[in-house]
Amino acid sequence: MIKGIYEGHLPVSNLEQSIKFYENLGLELASMGENLAFFWIEKGKSWLGLWEGSQVQIPYHVSIRHVAFQIDLEDMKKAKAWLKERSVDVVDIFHFSPERQPLVLPNYPHAHAAIYFEDPDGNLLEFISPLRIDGKEKFEMMELNQWNE
Protein backbone atom coordinates (compact mmCIF):
# COMPACT_ATOMS: atom_id res chain seq x y z
CA MET A 1 0.00 0.00 0.00
CA ILE A 2 2.39 2.77 1.16
CA LYS A 3 5.22 3.33 -1.33
CA GLY A 4 7.06 6.26 0.24
CA ILE A 5 6.66 9.85 1.36
CA TYR A 6 5.38 12.14 -1.36
CA GLU A 7 5.66 15.51 0.34
CA GLY A 8 7.03 17.42 3.28
CA HIS A 9 6.49 21.07 4.23
CA LEU A 10 8.52 23.87 5.83
CA PRO A 11 7.62 27.40 6.91
CA VAL A 12 9.64 30.28 5.43
CA SER A 13 9.74 34.03 6.02
CA ASN A 14 10.64 35.15 2.49
CA LEU A 15 9.44 32.88 -0.31
CA GLU A 16 11.56 34.54 -3.00
CA GLN A 17 14.75 34.13 -0.93
CA SER A 18 13.85 30.53 -0.12
CA ILE A 19 13.16 29.71 -3.77
CA LYS A 20 16.68 30.89 -4.65
CA PHE A 21 18.16 28.84 -1.79
CA TYR A 22 16.45 25.57 -2.78
CA GLU A 23 17.18 26.11 -6.49
CA ASN A 24 20.82 26.58 -5.46
CA LEU A 25 20.62 23.10 -3.91
CA GLY A 26 19.57 21.80 -7.32
CA LEU A 27 15.87 21.29 -6.62
CA GLU A 28 13.47 22.05 -9.47
CA LEU A 29 10.58 24.45 -8.83
CA ALA A 30 7.48 22.37 -9.51
CA SER A 31 4.58 24.69 -8.70
CA MET A 32 3.81 28.06 -7.16
CA GLY A 33 0.80 29.59 -5.52
CA GLU A 34 0.13 32.51 -3.24
CA ASN A 35 2.78 32.32 -0.49
CA LEU A 36 3.56 28.73 -1.51
CA ALA A 37 6.15 26.96 -3.66
CA PHE A 38 6.69 23.25 -4.31
CA PHE A 39 10.06 21.78 -5.33
CA TRP A 40 10.63 18.38 -6.81
CA ILE A 41 12.95 16.23 -4.73
CA GLU A 42 12.46 13.32 -7.11
CA LYS A 43 10.23 14.37 -10.00
CA GLY A 44 6.88 12.63 -9.89
CA LYS A 45 7.78 10.84 -6.64
CA SER A 46 8.38 13.43 -3.91
CA TRP A 47 8.31 17.16 -3.36
CA LEU A 48 8.87 19.81 -0.72
CA GLY A 49 6.36 22.58 0.00
CA LEU A 50 7.54 25.96 1.30
CA TRP A 51 4.91 28.13 2.98
CA GLU A 52 5.56 31.82 3.60
CA GLY A 53 3.92 32.88 6.84
CA SER A 54 4.18 33.56 10.56
CA GLN A 55 4.61 29.84 11.36
CA VAL A 56 8.32 30.33 10.64
CA GLN A 57 8.49 32.01 14.08
CA ILE A 58 7.67 28.71 15.81
CA PRO A 59 10.91 27.68 17.56
CA TYR A 60 12.80 24.94 15.79
CA HIS A 61 12.06 21.36 16.75
CA VAL A 62 12.99 18.34 14.65
CA SER A 63 9.35 17.21 14.60
CA ILE A 64 8.14 20.31 12.77
CA ARG A 65 11.04 22.05 10.98
CA HIS A 66 13.32 19.33 9.59
CA VAL A 67 13.76 17.57 6.26
CA ALA A 68 16.32 14.88 5.40
CA PHE A 69 17.33 14.37 1.76
CA GLN A 70 18.65 10.91 0.91
CA ILE A 71 21.89 10.94 -1.07
CA ASP A 72 24.31 8.25 -2.20
CA LEU A 73 27.21 7.43 0.10
CA GLU A 74 29.71 8.49 -2.58
CA ASP A 75 28.03 11.92 -2.68
CA MET A 76 28.15 12.10 1.14
CA LYS A 77 31.94 12.07 0.95
CA LYS A 78 31.91 15.29 -1.08
CA ALA A 79 28.79 16.91 0.42
CA LYS A 80 30.64 19.55 2.49
CA ALA A 81 32.55 20.79 -0.55
CA TRP A 82 29.35 20.73 -2.64
CA LEU A 83 27.53 22.81 -0.01
CA LYS A 84 30.46 25.21 0.33
CA GLU A 85 30.40 25.82 -3.45
CA ARG A 86 26.80 26.96 -2.94
CA SER A 87 27.66 29.17 0.08
CA VAL A 88 25.81 26.86 2.47
CA ASP A 89 27.42 26.20 5.86
CA VAL A 90 27.37 22.88 7.69
CA VAL A 91 26.09 23.44 11.26
CA ASP A 92 27.06 22.02 14.66
CA ILE A 93 24.81 19.17 15.76
CA PHE A 94 24.95 16.51 18.48
CA HIS A 95 28.26 18.07 19.64
CA PHE A 96 29.74 17.41 16.19
CA SER A 97 31.31 20.48 14.59
CA PRO A 98 31.20 20.91 10.81
CA GLU A 99 34.79 19.64 10.67
CA ARG A 100 33.68 16.33 12.25
CA GLN A 101 30.87 15.72 9.76
CA PRO A 102 29.64 13.66 8.06
CA LEU A 103 28.76 11.71 11.17
CA VAL A 104 27.30 8.25 11.68
CA LEU A 105 23.95 8.08 13.47
CA PRO A 106 23.49 5.02 15.71
CA ASN A 107 19.82 4.40 14.95
CA TYR A 108 20.08 0.82 16.22
CA PRO A 109 19.84 -1.60 14.57
CA HIS A 110 20.60 0.70 11.63
CA ALA A 111 23.44 3.09 10.80
CA HIS A 112 23.22 6.20 8.64
CA ALA A 113 25.80 8.77 7.52
CA ALA A 114 24.54 12.34 7.83
CA ILE A 115 25.53 15.96 7.44
CA TYR A 116 23.46 18.94 8.62
CA PHE A 117 22.83 22.46 7.35
CA GLU A 118 20.07 25.10 7.54
CA ASP A 119 17.97 27.07 5.11
CA PRO A 120 17.72 30.89 5.46
CA ASP A 121 14.99 30.50 8.13
CA GLY A 122 16.86 28.03 10.33
CA ASN A 123 14.92 24.96 9.18
CA LEU A 124 17.28 22.03 9.74
CA LEU A 125 18.17 20.18 6.56
CA GLU A 126 20.06 16.93 6.38
CA PHE A 127 21.77 14.81 3.79
CA ILE A 128 21.47 11.17 4.87
CA SER A 129 22.74 7.90 3.45
CA PRO A 130 22.08 4.40 4.81
CA LEU A 131 25.24 2.54 5.84
CA ARG A 132 23.77 -0.57 7.43
CA ILE A 133 20.27 -1.93 7.89
CA ASP A 134 19.52 -4.46 10.65
CA GLY A 135 23.01 -4.65 12.13
CA LYS A 136 23.89 -6.78 15.13
CA GLU A 137 26.09 -4.56 17.32
CA LYS A 138 25.36 -1.21 18.94
CA PHE A 139 27.82 1.68 18.66
CA GLU A 140 28.22 5.30 19.66
CA MET A 141 27.81 8.22 17.28
CA MET A 142 31.06 8.79 15.40
CA GLU A 143 32.62 10.52 12.44
CA LEU A 144 32.15 8.81 9.10
CA ASN A 145 35.91 8.49 8.64
CA GLN A 146 36.03 6.50 11.92
CA TRP A 147 33.27 4.20 10.64
CA ASN A 148 35.32 3.52 7.52
CA GLU A 149 38.43 2.48 9.49
Q: Briefly, what is this?
A:
The protein is α+β, with helices and mostly antiparallel strands and 149 residues long. Helices cover 17% and strands 36% of the residues. The mean pLDDT is 94.
**At the first level of CATH, what is the class of the largest domain?**
Alpha Beta
Q: How large, in whole angstroms, is the Cα Rg?
A: 16 Å
Shape: globular
As laid out across the biggest beta sheet, the strand order is 5-8-7-6-9
Mean pLDDT: 94
- The fold-level CATH name of the largest domain is Signal recognition particle alu RNA binding heterodimer, srp9/1
Describe this structure in words.
It contains 4 helices and 9 strands. The protein has 149 residues and is α+β, with helices and mostly antiparallel strands. 17% of the residues lie in helices and 36% in strands. The protein has a 5-stranded mixed β-sheet with strand order 5-8-7-6-9. Strands 1-4-3-2 form a 4-stranded mixed β-sheet, covered by helices on one side. It is globular and about 50 Å long. It has helices at 15-24, 73-76, 79-85, 144-147; strands spanning 7-12, 28-33, 36-42, 46-52, 66-70, 103-105, 111-118, 124-132, 142-143. It folds into 2 domains: 1-58, 2,3-Dihydroxybiphenyl 1,2-Dioxygenase, domain 1, CATH 3.10.180.10; 64-149, Signal recognition particle alu RNA binding heterodimer, srp9/1. The model has no long low-confidence stretch (mean pLDDT 94). The N and C termini lie far apart (40 Å). A hairpin with a 2-residue loop joins strand 2 and strand 3 (36-42).
